[in-house]
Amino acid sequence: MLVKIEAIVRPEKTEQILAKLAEKGHTAVTRMDVYGRGKQAGIHIGDVFYDELPKELLFLVAEAAHEKEIVDVITTQARTSDLGNYGDGRIFVHAIENAYTISSGAEGL
């Protein structure tokens, strides 16, 4: 079985996360610049209210057996302190029925 792991993380943590994933053999990753807000619904800094903050969306598809390892890498590398902070991000895991390579038509990873 395959899983798609999506992680919304702070932009300054992306390179660190990608390096550690590559070190563990997970090199196939897609990344996008995104904007959004979490449960805190924005942030006030002084008199300025930031409704949406810049984040990066990372996603990869892997064998389900690697899910815990990948989630642990992302969680460990994305945290901004030992206990974490608001805005450190979120991870979503989805079941994937299948994957196909466009150039070859090969099925699976």
TrEMBL record:
Listed PROSITE patterns: PII_GLNB_DOM
For this UniProt entry, the molecular function terms from Gene Ontology, in alphabetical order, are: ATP binding; enzyme regulator activity
Report any one BP term from Gene Ontology. regulation of nitrogen utilization
Keyword Magnesium set for record: no
Give the residue spans that cross the bilayer: none
Q: What does this protein do?
A: Could be involved in the regulation of nitrogen fixation.
> Can you name this protein?
P-II family nitrogen regulator
